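Now for a concrete sample entry.
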Amino acid sequence: MKHSWIVLLAAGVLTTHAQAGEVKLTWQEPEKYADIRSTGETRDAFQARVTEDLSKVFVDLAKKLPDGVTWIVTVTDVDLAGEVRPMMRLGISDIRVVKDGYWPRMSIRYSMLDAKGQVISEGQEDIKDMSFMFGKLVTSGNSSFQYEERMLRDWFKRQQRDKLFPAR
């Protein structure tokens, strides 16, 4: 069964407030993603936690956009840092091995619209951080997926630096 999780960013839940951009986020068929495998939670609970935590990161990034800008994002794939090894168990839980060769990756499609609904930028990206083991971890408190959060924040900063995304 195909599923798309659409995160409606309602006031007070996961929305940016006036004086900042807004993000509309869709998680397209997360059950088919390369790797959002849990080591100890049910698949559905872990999938919900991944999408919730990373949705908060997107909302925080949208706050860096100018007023009236809408960022429409569809996440088409996620591959978390590390790899779950079912044969390596700690009690009844599998273990996620995190090492250099298992970098985080995310595929997205996006459009950015100005206040009049005109396209500012759009594209498709395969975001990855092959050197994720060598940077300072993010301590924003938005996500328990620090490697993926740092990867998204670094990518977003590059988009603003390169003038592809408008800056506040």
